[in-house]
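ARCHIVE CARD
CATEGORY: sequence design from structure
SOURCE FIELD: tokenized fold
FIELD CONTENT:
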């Protein structure tokens, strides 16, 4: 029988380990599937057979658990959020619901263990269990929102370089499709997220979609406003017969200016963001060191 004081650390360790395993399983499954499918697309447009996905027992189990709670199908908003986080493969919504259910169970179990180990009132115990359930439900949503924010920021930061490369290829005499394919391959190392979105545009066009439609789908799928502007520029250039290179050059300059403005804005906000940690952590220490001896001396004099 383990001592009571060991149950809480073990429960916390189990929660962290399980959460990390679920996140890693989701990440690897999505990345492996997308890379395997994109490798089947040749530069000349030929499509080979779809590879067999390697089974993942943990992901499959969580997917089956989540499938029981989404019998009517996941909402379009959830699918859009998962797509913006980089999860476009089949069954990812069920996997996400399975993670949420597992996190909910773990949160409730940890709360019950904490309530049983400490002498608390019934109302406080119920409140702790409810808080654990709410926290277990909100953690997957928070992780997903952070991944969406990180991926959107990566696409936004890498887009000016991609536009420059696209403009150079078009100015060198390449067609828009050839320049797009070359830019996709060159951006593979610099920004995998942007390269994946551009590769999906190639895949949609190979499957019969028109370029404006594929670009519009890319903008909606990624959630990056700059990609929406890029799709509009290319579509308008094709429609009105204007120079694509000139439009891309102007848009790239605008993107660089916006990136510089965002950097300046972040630098100006840094002083305000540092104010709260300084007040909470640094100022009390400085006050104790500077005024502590004088306060002790004053107390000693008054007591005498």
């Amino acid at each position: 029988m383990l001592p009571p004081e060991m149950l809480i650390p073990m429960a916390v360790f189990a929660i962290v380990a399980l959460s990390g395993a679920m996140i890693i399983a989701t990440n690897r499954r999505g990345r492996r599937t997308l890379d395997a499918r994109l490798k089947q697309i040749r530069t000349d447009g030929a499509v080979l057979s779809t590879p067999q996905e390697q089974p993942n027992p943990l992901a499959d189990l969580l997917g089956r658990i989540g499938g029981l709670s989404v019998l009517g199908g996941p909402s379009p908003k959830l699918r859009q959020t998962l797509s913006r986080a980089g999860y476009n493969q089949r069954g990812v919504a069920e996997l996400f619901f399975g993670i949420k259910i597992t996190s909910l169970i773990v949160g409730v179990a940890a709360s019950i263990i904490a309530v049983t180990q400490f002498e608390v009132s019934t109302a406080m115990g119920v409140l702790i269990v409810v808080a654990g359930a709410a926290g277990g439900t909100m953690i997957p949503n928070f992780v997903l929102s952070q991944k969406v924010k990180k991926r959107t920021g990566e696409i936004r930061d890498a887009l000016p370089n991609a536009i420059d490369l696209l403009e150079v290829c078009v100015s060198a005499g390449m067609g828009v499709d050839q320049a797009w394919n070359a830019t996709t391959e060159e951006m593979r190392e610099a920004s995998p997220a942007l390269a994946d979105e551009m590769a999906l545009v190639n895949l949609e066009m190979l499957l019969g979609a028109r370029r404006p439609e594929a670009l519009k789908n890319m903008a909606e799928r990624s959630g990056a406003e700059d990609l929406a502007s890029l799709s509009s520029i290319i579509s308008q250039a094709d429609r009105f017969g204007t120079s694509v290179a000139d439009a891309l050059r102007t848009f790239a300059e605008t993107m660089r200016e916006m990136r510089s403005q965002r950097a300046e804005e972040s630098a100006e906000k840094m002083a305000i963001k540092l104010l709260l940690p300084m007040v909470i952590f640094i100022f009390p220490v400085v006050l104790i060191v500077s005024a502590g001896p004088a306060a002790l001396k004053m107390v000693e004099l008054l007591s005498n």
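CARD ANNOTATION: Residues 275 and 281 are 10 Å apart (CA to CA). Residues 41-52 have pLDDT under 50 and may be disordered.
SHELF: design records, drawer C
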